[in-house]
Design goal:
Radius of gyration: 33 Å
Number of helices: 4
Distance between the termini: 15 Å
Structural class: mainly alpha
Shape: flat
Strand order of the largest sheet: 1-2
Helix content: 40-55%
Length: about 180
């Protein structure tokens, strides 16, 4: 942040203190609009500086955290592998030993049945369509493409959406025109 922007921020603080004293600032001409834009530019620069500093600190803390947790993660994986090996050996001896419990923890197993899994969506869709399994296919409208073919017309003082043949399209409404404002600094 340069010296001019620091000065602009000091003026912002002065204006904010005036605002609380029931004196309201208003934009009345191009000079006052320009003044406000200078203040916004200084505030955006200050905001950017704060966010950059915060991101640098977040990255530094994240790196520290990863360093501290890596040895813990490795040790945890090692001990869990030992437990899994022990439990699998016990399951061979006694297939009903689904849970092994101690005062400090439990090792549990859960068997799952084999199940079908989607590998190639396109091949599966082709198969379903070729074999008449249409009830398993969901359909949706390609809105971005279809709305290009529609027109908005005025019928008896009411705006409606019609297709290329002039028929009213059900399920489609007319969103009224509006103006939106944005500020760029």
């Amino acid at each position: 942040m340069n010296a001019l922007q620091k000065f602009e921020l000091m003026e912002v603080e002065d204006i904010e203190s005036l605002e609380s004293a029931e004196i309201k600032f208003e934009i009345t001409d191009l000079d006052s609009l320009n003044w406000v834009f200078r203040k916004l530019a200084a505030l955006k620069t200050k905001e950017k500086e704060i966010k950059q500093l915060a991101n640098v600190e977040r990255d530094r803390i994240s790196q520290w955290e990863q360093g501290e947790l890596s040895s813990i993660t490795n040790s945890t994986s090692f001990f869990e592998a030992l437990i899994q090996k022990y439990h699998s050996e016990k399951l061979v001896e006694d297939p009903k030993a689904k849970t092994i419990s101690t005062p400090y923890g439990k090792s549990k197993t859960r068997a799952s049945k084999e199940a079908a899994e989607k590998a190639d969506e396109e091949k599966l869709l082709d198969y379903v369509l070729e074999n008449g399994l249409d009830e398993f296919v969901k359909q949706s409208v390609k809105w971005a493409d279809v709305k290009k073919t529609f027109k908005i017309v005025d019928i008896s003082g009411e705006k409606v959406v019609v297709d290329d043949n002039g028929q009213i399209v059900p399920g489609v409404a007319v969103k009224p025109a509006s103006i939106s404002y944005s500020v760029e600094v």
